[in-house]
Automatic annotation (TrEMBL), chains A, B:
It holds the Pfam family GST_N_3. It comes from Ferruginivarius sediminum. This is Glutathione S-transferase family protein. Residues 1-79 form the GST N-terminal domain. PANTHER family: GLUTATHIONE S TRANSFERASE D10, ISOFORM A-RELATED. Residues 84-215 form the GST C-terminal domain. The keyword RNA-binding does not apply.
Length: 222, 222
């Protein structure tokens, strides 16, 4: 069976998990503590990062962006990128917005500071980073609401990789209880629709040992 | 005519310039001082970043990664991604290696510190960043040589987006004179082959006012 090497609170890994569930692909999850720099794993991906997908035949595809394009090419139904080049450009633009910009401005400042640092024994969270993450998230939640005012889903009429990318990031920040949902009704309504998709169930069942999520995390009527 | 909003020493912009030349697409270059946050430009790309491609009909496609996929879909000949999903996964893996990892570990530490900070009036280069860039580049030049020992071009038999991505980064670092070519013959031989391609001529003609490149920069027999 396909194997996905992952970490539970890693947005790129969550993106691929949801993507594969949307495409109804079976796979086994294997947690990889990347900071241990295990030799067998570095042979799979010299960059030493998750996610890495290993196909039944042994083909190895590292990186969330690369895996997403590969799965779209090899398992095109249902498409999560769109039906023509301009639609796909808009989906990719927004997916990248969340994969890169949201990640850099919000997720790294909150999730990596609070969780990854603990596992990597890198000391206490940096309070300046935490403050930056809390300040920056409002702008992104406003952007989600602005898009949803004009479209059914973030990139257009259809649920797409843009929604998956945004929800993958937000779900990690939500796990540490740092999404101010009550101040952003538009984004909350969109996220409630994402949460109710069966593809999202695995994400909502995640439990990091010693660090339970807030009670609303897995609640579909949060 | 197609317009590409760009900055001369921006690796993502250089990647798209070379890509369009390889595909023999005509385009006009417009320099965009992104730090001025010009309103008309922010309407094209709310992320406020170059490159942005504007098509003849007015379609707007921002971000180097998104533009590259869009051009491959709309102008597929010659392909710069490869002919089957696994080939394309390897090209995308390596392109991302240079777009993200090399950029973060080398280019930002050297080019952004020395050039971008000056234009943005952010003060002097950070000597710790400069040292990190100088230390990290060896590992990447070794990786290029290792790949070229086993393959004609970085990702396989054909010149691809992987070569373009790597050369786009290295050419910026080379402009500030910080590539230790003499210690890395394998990478130098590969870069000499890239430099000799007609698609690369525009890059080698770049001149940043007040900051001329070293004499070997545009020399094909450097």
């Amino acid at each position: 069976m396909r194997v996905l090497y992952h970490l539970p609170l890693h947005p790129g890994c969550r993106k691929i998990r949801v993507l594969m569930r949307e495409k109804k692909l079976d796979f086994e999850l294997k947690a990889e503590q990347v900071w241990e720099r295990r030799e067998g794993f570095l042979r799979l991906n010299p960059a030493g990062e998750v996610p890495v997908l290993v196909e039944d035949g042994g083909a190895v595809i590292p990186d969330a962006g690369v895996i997403a394009e590969y799965l779209e090419e090899t398992c095109p139904e249902p498409t999560l990128l769109g039906h023509d080049p301009m639609e796909r450009a808009e989906v990719r633009r927004l997916a990248l917005w969340f994969d890169a910009k949201f990640n850099r401005e919000v997720t790294i400042n909150l999730v990596d500071e609070k969780i990854l640092k603990r596992f990597m024994k890198l000391g206490h969270p940096d309070s300046q980073a935490i403050r930056a993450g809390h300040a920056n998230i409002h702008y992104h939640l406003d952007y989600i609401a602005w898009l949803c005012d004009r479209r059914t889903w973030l990139a257009g009429d259809d649920f797409s990789m843009a929604d998956i990318a945004a929800a993958a990031q937000l779900s990690c920040v939500d796990y540490v209880g740092d999404v101010p949902w009550e101040q952003h009704q538009g984004a909350k309504d969109w996220y409630a629709r994402v949460k109710s998709r069966p593809s999202f169930r695995g994400i909502l069942a995640d439990q990091v040992p010693g660090l339970p999520p807030p009670s609303h995390y897995a609640d579909l009527d949060f």
